[in-house]
Amino acid sequence: YVESVDFGEPSESKAVLGGYGEFHYNKLNARDSSKDLRKADYHRWVMFLNHEFSDRVRYFSEFELEHSLAGDGKPGEVELEQAFIEIDLDDEHVTRTGLFLVPVGILNETHEPPTFYGVERNDVENVILPATWWEAGMSMGGRYESGFSWDFAVHSGLEMPTEGSKAFRVRSGRQKVANAIAKSLAYTIRGRYTGLPGLDLSASYQVQQDPSQVANDGLDSGKLINLNAIYQTGDFQIRALWAQWHFNGAAVESANVDKQTGWYIEPSYRFNAFERNFGTYYRYEDVEGARVQDRFDQWQIGFNWYPVPDVVLKVDWRNRSHDLSDQSGRDFKGFDLGVGYQF
């Protein structure tokens, strides 16, 4: 005999439509002028389609077109970034099954343009934490009145290359759940604390059983540690993130990229004089990735203007310096312009 579980009354609210988008203009002047960048790009157009089956069973999805145009020889991609069923097991515990965002970092789960500073997303959560990063599997979580919460997910893993120009690059290992090889799975656990006003602390730990999905190829396993902190008091906020991969295997250790690390710190301020619809920030970040061009430090300063809360116009100035002398031609200074929205 199995006791039946009450999954709630059917919901009167059915499908809910939402989305976000962002346009970018980049003008970057490199030390080697052949590497200058002048680009206008409708970077992302995203639609959310969610549905409540009952007050305890829900469906979430996210459909994205990147770079405006997709197809053979075109720069863009059409992607399904979320598609999962969420079930409340009780008032404190929830489970998700399907295709979902991995619970790591600050931006991976919350990346709508009005929610962050900078035209482009920060580089640590691109090179080290390959946001936007989604996998398929199942997760469980708990949310408590104390402000503590946890998530544990079993999901598909990376398929990182071990040869060529993208060898051991984490971002190149995302399979995007497109006929993803699942010989070896991955596990992610996150703890989070928001029990004090203005404070948001979280820590994630992930195990990749075989991040190349190929046995005995010199990339045998991987572990990720990630720490995040956000603190806000009044109109001042500071964000900080640190993440580090440790990979095991003869090939990755021989290439001296078995440890890949990144961190950033970002103070910001919203101005009361402008009815809090204007903000400024400074960010410093350090990235130590697998590719030689992914080892650099960068500082930037910028401004956000919110004509309404869900629309933002952005401008920033960036200065990047690479660690290796033979990559100094990639060093650049320049500015970015952008507009974004969410609804």
From the structure above, extract its key features:
343 residues; mainly beta; 16-stranded antiparallel beta barrel; 2 helices; 3% helix; globular; disordered N terminus
Fold and architecture overview:
- By secondary structure, this protein is mainly beta.
- Helices cover 3% and strands 54% of the residues.
- The chain contains 2 helices and 16 strands.
- The protein has a 16-stranded antiparallel β-barrel.
- Strand 8 (186-193) and strand 9 form a beta hairpin.
- It is globular and about 65 Å long.
- Mean pLDDT is 95; it is low at 1-5.
Please provide a brief summary of the model.
With 343 residues, the protein is mainly beta. The chain is 3% helix and 54% strand.
Low-pLDDT segments: 1-5
What's the arrangement of strands in the largest beta sheet? 1-2-3-4-5-6-7-8-9-10-11-12-13-14-15-16
Which percent bin holds the helix content? Answer: under 10%
Dominant shape: globular
Can you give the mean pLDDT? 95
Main beta sheet strand tally, sense and closure: 16 strands, antiparallel, barrel
Helix-strand pattern: EEEEEHEEEEEEHEEEEE
How many distinct helices? 2
Number of strands: 16
Terminal Cα span = 46 Å
Strand content: over 45%
Structural class assignment:
mainly beta
